[in-house]
Amino acid sequence: MAGHSKWAQIKHKKGTTDAKRGQLFSKLVKEITIAAREAGPNPDANPRLRAACERARAEGLPKDNMERAIARAAGRGEGADLSEFLYEASAPGGTPLLIEGITDNKNRTVNEIKHLLTLHGGRMADPGSLIWNFEKIGMIACTPPSHVPQETSEMAVIDSGARDFAVGEDGVWLVETDYSARESVCAALRAAGFAIRDTGHDYKAKSLVPPAVGAEAKINALMEALADHNDVQDVYSNLRR
């Protein structure tokens, strides 16, 4: 499970400031809106919406905010102009990045992201030139039932069809799946008594590489600046940490 620091640390970290929490809530609402708009407002029939709502609940987004986002999407009102993007970029030292997000103005967003890249020594890459370094996979964050031995829970994960798993420092299990198998693995884990905290996807690097000499601090600063952008949902790299 090397390379999944984003899931182990960022999605479940505590003690965020009010400003950061407000920004996170805004991003969660965008994801819920996009999911409901594209495949309907019923989470039971819309796996992406169900996953977005699970993450929102785990992060403490108020229920009213989720319901308003779904209602707006169903009514094709506010949020109808949201669109998704996946940009490829090169960080200092040549490290490839994928920048994923949701925006209501692609021209504004791409110009702002180009500006951040320039400030931190990176550059935008041509579409398709770097994404081959990554594989889109499913990820599930969950906790096992407390009343069964760990070995039994481990066998349940293996039997679910998962590809790999790891146990985080906070006791949350991170389960990796084929992207197309995420829902079936999630259902199997629920049936085995696991509590699902978060589901989503990841762009897993096919191979991890160390940063170029002297470039790690610059890469980290760039990735943090990108992650702080209001329209950016996630930033992926193949950096070995």
Question: What this model shows, in words?
Answer:
The protein has eight helices and eight strands. With 241 residues, it is of the alpha+beta class. It folds into three domains: 5-74, Arc Repressor Mutant, subunit A; 83-132 and 208-237, Alpha-Beta Plaits (2-Layer Sandwich), CATH 3.30.70; 134-205, YebC, transcriptional regulation domain (Alpha-Beta Plaits). A hairpin with a 5-residue loop joins strand 5 (164-167) and strand 6. Helix 2 (18-39) packs antiparallel against helix 3 and helix 2 runs parallel beside helix 4 (63-74).
Q: Topology of this structure?
A:
Blueprint: H1 5-10, H2 18-39, H3 47-59, H4 63-74, E1 83-90, E2 96-103, H5 106-119, E3 123-124, E4 134-143, H6 150-159, E5 164-167, E6 173-178, H7 182-191, E7 195-205, H8 216-227, E8 232-237
Antiparallel strand pairs: 1-2, 1-3, 2-8, 4-6, 4-7, 5-6
Summarize, please.
The chain is α+β, with helices and mostly antiparallel strands. The protein contains 8 helices and 8 strands; from the N terminus they run ααααββαββαββαβαβ. The chain folds into 3 domains: 5-74, Arc Repressor Mutant, subunit A (Orthogonal Bundle); 83-132 and 208-237, YebC, transcriptional regulation domain (Alpha-Beta Plaits, 2-Layer Sandwich); 134-205, YebC, transcriptional regulation domain (Alpha-Beta Plaits, 2-Layer Sandwich), CATH 3.30.70.980.
